[in-house]
Amino acid sequence: MKNSQYFLHDCCARNNAKMLSLTADKGLEGYGAYWMLLEYLREQSDYCMPLSLLPSLAKQLGKFTQWVEELVCNYGLFVLTDDGRFTSQGLQQRMKPLENKRKARDAKAEKAARKKAQNSNTNSSFSAAQKTETNEKNSAKKVENKPLQLVDNECVAKASLEEKRIEEKRIEEIKKKEKEATASEKESSSSGSKSSFWEGWLNEALGERSWLELQAIHSGLSGAFLPHLEVISKAFREHVLRQGTEVTICSLRDVKSYFSNFIRQGTVTNKRLRKLIEKAAATNVYRFEQLVDGQRTYCGLPIPEGAPPRPAVTSVWDEMKHCWEY
Question: Staple 81 to which of 85, 97, 116, 200, CB 3.0 to 4.6 Å?
Answer without folding.
Answer: 85
